[in-house]
Amino acid sequence: MRTASVVAGLLLAQGALACGHCVEDKIAAAYDHSVIVRAVDNRHKVAFLSLEGAPTKSQERALVRAVESTAGVDRGTARVSLEGGAVSFAFDPSRHALQSIVDGIQKRFAARGAVVSVLRVVGD
């Protein structure tokens, strides 16, 4: 009886595990609470992007640098999660349009075989 209960519990709990493919899981992979708090305090926004393609773990730092060097991205706010397939960064919407930032990031990532798309933007 005990074994059956343990097995049943494990099977039921399996559905609660993160799938890694839904929007919420991708956002969680690149989420940094301190970046969000600073962005909101400065009336900036934080964008979360989906990262698709085949970048390798050794490219992660280069991808962070690529995001940080894109016009409009607040310095020190870029987060890249290859495992989670996500990118996040803060920006000032009064100075730079999100689409122009995303286009700049996409140009930098294309050389590494990666594609980005907007998942969500937070902050007001």
What does this structure look like?
The chain has 124 residues and is of the alpha+beta class. It has five helices and four strands, in the order αααβαββαβ. The chain has a single domain, classed as Alpha-Beta Plaits (2-Layer Sandwich), CATH 3.30.70. Helix content is 41%, strand content 22%.
CATH topology call? Alpha-Beta Plaits
Q: Percent of residues in beta strands?
A: 15-25%
Helical/strand content category: alpha+beta
Q: Which geometry do the CA atoms define?
A: globular
DSSP summary, beta strand count: 4
What is the class in the CATH system?
A: Alpha Beta
User: Over all CA atoms, what is the radius of gyration?
Assistant: 17 Å
- Kindly state the percentage of residues in helix: 40-55%
Name the helix and strand elements from N-terminus to C-terminus, one letter apiece: HHHEHEEHE
Any low-confidence stretches, pLDDT <50, length ≥5?
13-18
What's the mean pLDDT score? 85
Number of domains: 1
Q: Can you name the CATH architecture? A: 2-Layer Sandwich
- Measured distance between first and last alpha carbons: 53 Å
- Tally of helical runs: 5
Looking across the biggest beta sheet, what order are the strands in? 2-3-1-4
Short description:
This protein has helices spanning 2-14, 23-29, 33-41, 60-68, 98-110; strands at residues 45-53, 79-81, 86-91, 114-122. The chain contains five helices and four strands; from the N terminus they run H-H-H-E-H-E-E-H-E.
